Amino acid sequence: MIYVQILLVSLGCLFFIVGTLGLLRFDDAYSRIHAITKADNLGLGLLVLGILPSALSVPQGLKLILIWVLVLAASATASYLIAHYIKQHQLSKLPHGARPDTTADGQDAEPDPTNERGPQ
Amino acid sequence: MNLIPLLLVIPLAWALISLLLPRLPLGPIAVLGMLVQLIASALLWRSVQLDGAARYAIGDWMAPLGITLVADGLTVTLLAMTALIAIICAVYALFYLRAHPHEKRYFWPLFWFLLAALNGIWLAGDLFNLYVGLELVTLAAVGMVTLSGKRNALAAGLRYLYAALLGSLGYLLGVALLYSAYGTLDMQQLSQLMENNWTTQAALLLMTLGLLVKTAIFPLHAWLPPAHGGALAPVSALLSALVVKSSFYILARLWLDAGSGLLPVAGAQLLGVLGASAIFYGGFKALQQKEIKMLVAYSTVAQLGYLMLVFPLATGTSPAAAMLAWQGGMLHLVAHAFAKAAMFLSVGTLVLAVGSKQISALAGISTRIPLSLFAFGLAGVSLMGLPPSGGFNAKWLMLQSAMTSGQWHWVIVLSLGSLLTATYIFKVFRVSFDQQAIDQGKGVVARAHWGLEVSALLLAAIAIGLGFAAALPIELLSLPQLENGALEGVSP
Amino acid sequence: MNLAFDIVLGLALLLTALGVFSSKDLFRAVVMFIAFGLLLALVWVRLDAPDLALAEAAIGAGLTGVLMIDAVAHLSANTLQNDQRDDQYDHSPKRPLWLPVISCVGLFVLLLGAIRFRPEASVSLPDMVRDNIAESGVEHPITAVLLNFRSYDTLLEIAVLLVAVVVAMALKPAAEDRVHQPPPAHDPILHGLTARLLPAMLLVGMYVLWAGSYMPGGAFQGGAILAAALVFLQLAGFAVDRYAASLLRLGLALGFLVFLTVAVSVMIGGRPFLTYPEGFAGQLIFFIEAMLTLSIGLILFSLFSQNPPHSGAVGHQGANHDQ
Amino acid sequence: MIEAHTAWYLASFVLLLTLIAGLLRIWHGPNPADRMLAAQLFGTTGVGILLTLAQAMQMPALNDVALVLALLATIAMVAFVKRMSPQQGPTKSQPEDQP
Amino acid sequence: MTSDLWFALMGVALIALAAFTFFRQVHLLRRILAFNIMGSGVFLVMVGMAQHQRETDPVPQALVLTGIVVAVSATALALIIFRRFYSVSGQVELDEYQIEEPTQNEDHASDTMKDNINSLQDALQSDDEAPAKPSASKGDQ
């Protein structure tokens, strides 16, 4: 059991590192959003799974799950908001030319929220 | 002995009333509340006079754990002074605020919170409790300065807030060091535990710096003139008479009561030099002012310098000289409070009547608004320290203390200071008794409301009255504070 | 291993503070300040003070960060309209160097000496707290100190909060309420999140309030979370401040009113000020804390909502007299 | 085998290092949006550190701190998006140190 | 070299840095940031020193909790007054470099006072007169 925990926690930390590396390395705002939202949420999920067995009691474990779900919902929406903000302010230099998705009145295709798993 | 918390509860209760029920006639209710406050402080004065100082443990928890309120001779005198000045300022504000409907809406809650904080500071015996009291005073005072919402009021309020917050942080840092060194926050316990080492000296130095900023002593005074000069008349009266004194009161408690042996003579002399430079700098700047309210504000900076002279006169000298200095200093604090409040109120009436803050605009008003100018004159007499007034008694005691302890340089400073005060007060009289302006009958002057003039006169009369009945407060001031007398072994 | 963690954490805290001070761009300084608040919460955890970590996270990283961002937004909104130069670069002159350097070095040396020569404390308050915790009515020592041993400090501190909001209301010209705020853009995703996050926030706020009596938590942290929930609603587009205006005054002063009435009514039974009757300390403290949470939530929220609108016409004399 | 709580400390130490790496993006971030992204990252990583510290220091109270931080992490981002943009028209992209 | 002492030293460093910035900067918002960080430094010193070589002490932690709430209300008030000042005057710093007293220019002062008189004494409706215009320009106050 300890080994599974160690594996999960180290994987979680790995994903956190990947997320931060993504944030630093990518030069375009959009790709940074992917790096943060995906990697970190996954990292946190693995971390929570790694911690669950050594949680003191069941309610504590449930609290950990609740924390993870809240972080998921919050960071998904945050990534949408920041993407919308960047789009609205043309802050990011579009790496490979303007994508033809912006229709005449500036209404772009509705970006599907990446992992919107918040409880519907 | 439930009187002590009553003095704290009344202002807080009235603050809630004036906040929650704005449609009520808040002015008269405030004056009523102040009457109750005045009676309570008079009763407390009587009980302390009869059976000595009292300690009151809040929440029934004893000293180091809980907070204790201390009501000794000095505290009771200051409580009575605060109640008296506040009731007259409330009466004055009642009439004055008719011309300022916007300010009236939020003046009274801030007035009551300021009063509650001041009473909290006079009564407090716990260092951190003093910090929260200081913050409450600062925020309420800044709120009152910025009430009008105009550019200059906001700038003055910001300057005041930044300086005061920095001062509070300095004070809090000192409290943090003292707690880490001695493990307790109660002043009486600390006075027995404190001995001379780097941490205590550093803590007391930081607290002194913080409190000097809040008392606007010479090098750190930049925030006071715009704040007190620009505010409404009753607000500047309250600020100059009471708020600036609260931080000085804590400084005096720290050095002369709790850490009575710790102030090095050189340090005391340095504080004296700061005081002297404040007297001269304030006096000269007051002389140069074009506006009457700025003149009075710089006069406050000058008069606060006198208070700082208590430290060199009281440390390292014979107990008799030290007691004289202590009595003189505290009497000056009280006399200046009444005189300065009277001066700011009378100036407020003059400015309202004449329509301009410029001193030159006051030309020839001696015949038109004699009552306010008379109040201004009486207050000036007390500030200058001419014989019948309370100011004279205070300066006389300090002079005696300086002579008995052989510190002649302070004698020179005291006398020159009084001379300087006289110059800038007579500057106003020279303008207002200008015979040529009187003949021309220049400038139509509006009749000011009788309430404004009478309240200014009442305060000035008390300032002069202190000269005659000085024995009453002095006898109480020298009451030995509980077991460890402020200045050991001094019989009243 | 944990010492290494502490050393790196301390250095990171210092680095962030340096970032705040040396950053030319104002917005960068504010974001660094938010990071500073978060690191400070971790420092409080390492100093074995979970209460302070909770308060720092709720008030420091949460509310103060939002207030700062709002202020920078206000500055950049007007600067960009006035002149096109980059708003956030700080072009204001600097003060002469002698005072900052003296105060910095002087404070550093003074405090180092104060730490170095600290005498051994002769009075131990933690033992006293432990001895008296039984009668205080709560198990958590910090809540006991805050609401029983030193409850007068807390009473004055609520007064400080109240004064801050009274001044905020005093500075708000009546004309500003009548001016119609532009309807916020309707954002489906944000509304979805608010609908789900709000109940969670209120629930956590009440949980933290309830937990205060036996583990870290309490009125202030609960109030801060309630305020954050209200700010969230306001930002998401629901004009909370307009609804709050009606019950604002009562809500603001409710906590203080209850605290004062309890403090005074106990005196009728002959007990000293602020002494809880023997058997009821626990329930009374919780009742006061619940009211305080509500009031602190409303106060901190109105400290956010009473600010001037960003598009306030800059430079003209605000029409403050509303007659 | 190293005992449990040093392992947890190791995990929290690694996460702290990633947090500090995030500071670089705040410092260099060409535009405000990148800085707010890093602040968002701080929120999540902060929750991670708090959870691991809760195990390392055997303090269940830290889970509440993590819960509160998880809730409040997004409020700064929402404030930034909602308050930073309404008045401005499309601003020119920040000229300064474009990598 | 316990962690309490280390964080107290960090507090000292923060206080010193914040003091430097507070006196160096003129921009009001930066000075609020410096004030906040100095406050945090003071709180670190208070808790760190009180718990250095001693057991965890709830009293300074309660004091710091009170301090944090007081600091947040002071900061919020400073921000509100600063933003009111900015929306009225368009300045981000106090006018240090002009004369110290507020620039009470002549007409501004007498206008406000005049409408006070009018509201107070509507009987004396003599609007045309103006109090003797002093020659002193506002510059050399």
**Strand portion of chain E:** under 5%
User: What is the end-to-end distance of chain C?
Assistant: 67 Å
Largest interface: C-E, 95 and 78 residues
| Share of helical residues of chain C | over 70%
- CATH architectural group of one domain in chain E: Orthogonal Bundle
| Name of the top-level CATH class of one domain in chain E | Mainly Alpha
| Cα-atom radius of gyration of chain E | 24 Å
**Unreliable stretches covering 5 or more consecutive residues of chain C:** 81-87, 313-323
Largest sheet properties of chain E: none
Terminal CA distance of chain E reads 57 Å
Give the oligomeric state of the chains in this entry, treating copies of one chain as homo and distinct chains as hetero.
heteropentamer
Unreliable residue runs of chain E: 97-141
Number of E-type strands of chain E:
0
Encode the helix/strand succession of chain E as letters. HHHH
Task: Name the shape of chain C in a single word.
Answer: globular
Strand content of chain C: under 5%
Secondary-structure element order of chain C, as H and E?
HHHHHHHHHHHH
How many distinct helices of chain E?
4
Q: What number of structural domains do the residues of chain C give?
A: 2
**Class derived from helix and strand content of chain C:** mainly alpha
Structure description:
The complex is a heteropentamer of chains A (120), B (492), C (323), D (99) and E (141). Chain A has 120 residues and is mostly helical. Chain A has one domain (2-89). Helices cover 66% and strands 0% of the residues of chain A. Chain A contains three helices and no strands. Residues 96-120 of chain A have low confidence and may be disordered. The longest helix of chain B has 36 residues, at 319-354. Chain C is an all-alpha fold and 323 residues long. Chain C has two domains: 1-89, NADH-ubiquinone/plastoquinone oxidoreductase chain 6, subunit NuoJ (Four Helix Bundle (Hemerythrin (Met), subunit A), Up-down Bundle); 139-310, no CATH class. Chain C has helices at residues 2-22, 26-46, 50-82, 98-116, 125-136, 141-149, 151-171, 174-178, 188-211, 219-236, 240-268, 281-305. By secondary structure, chain E is an all-alpha fold. In chain E, helix 1 (3-24) runs antiparallel to helix 2 (28-51). The longest helix of chain E has 32 residues, at 58-89. The relative contact order of chain E is 0.10. Chains in contact: A-C, A-D, B-C, B-E, C-D, C-E. At the C-E interface, helix 1, helix 2, helix 3, helix 4 and helix 5 of C face helix 1, helix 2 and helix 3 of E.
Overview features:
heteropentamer, C: 323 residues, mainly alpha, Four Helix Bundle (Hemerythrin (Met), subunit A), 2 domains, 0% strand, globular, disordered C terminus, E: 141 residues, Helix Hairpins, 4 helices, 66% helix, elongated
Short structural summary:
Chain A is mainly alpha-helical and 120 residues long.
Which helices and strands occur, and which strands form pairs?
The complex is a heteropentamer of chains A (120), B (492), C (323), D (99) and E (141).
Chain B: H1 3-20, H2 26-51, E1 54-57, E2 68-71, H3 73-96, H4 101-123, H5 127-145, H6 151-182, H7 187-193, H8 198-214, H9 224-230, H10 233-258, H11 265-288, H12 292-308, H13 310-314, H14 319-354, H15 370-384, H16 390-404, H17 408-432, H18 435-440, H19 450-468, H20 471-477
Antiparallel strand pairs in B: 1-2
Helix pairs in contact in B: 1-2, 1-4, 2-3, 3-4, 3-10, 3-14, 3-19, 4-5, 4-10, 5-6, 5-10, 6-8, 6-9, 8-10, 9-10, 9-12, 10-12, 10-14, 11-12, 11-17, 12-14, 12-17, 14-15, 14-16, 14-19, 15-17, 15-19, 16-17, 16-19
Chain D: H1 4-28, H2 32-56, H3 61-84
Helix pairs in contact in D: 1-2, 2-3
Chain E: H1 3-24, H2 28-51, H3 58-89, H4 106-120
